[in-house]
Design brief:
It is built from 2 helices and 2 strands, in the order E-H-E-H.
């Protein structure tokens, strides 16, 4: 993921310290959401969107594309 980021990207999610550090190295493009706001709840993302909207920060909806990452351990079924 870190190597594929080449434009401003907001990262939200439950990340380990090492993952946050690796993504943080791409500071020119990566905006990391604070760990306290990185829980898997749609309400957290909605609150972030509302704050952006209130500050006049809007995006072209056709240009938005979420990237969902999921780790599946085949040994833990």
């Amino acid at each position: 993921l870190a190597n594929s980021i080449n434009k401003p990207t907001l990262i939200a999610g439950e990340l380990s310290g090492a993952e946050r550090q690796r993504l943080g190295r791409k500071k020119a493009y990566v905006v990391l959401v604070p760990p306290a706001a990185c829980v898997r709840r749609p309400s957290v993302l909605a609150e972030m969107a509302l704050t952006r909207w209130r500050n006049g920060l809007v995006d072209d909806l056709a240009a938005l594309a979420p990237i969902y990452l999921h780790f599946h351990d085949p040994m833990n079924v």
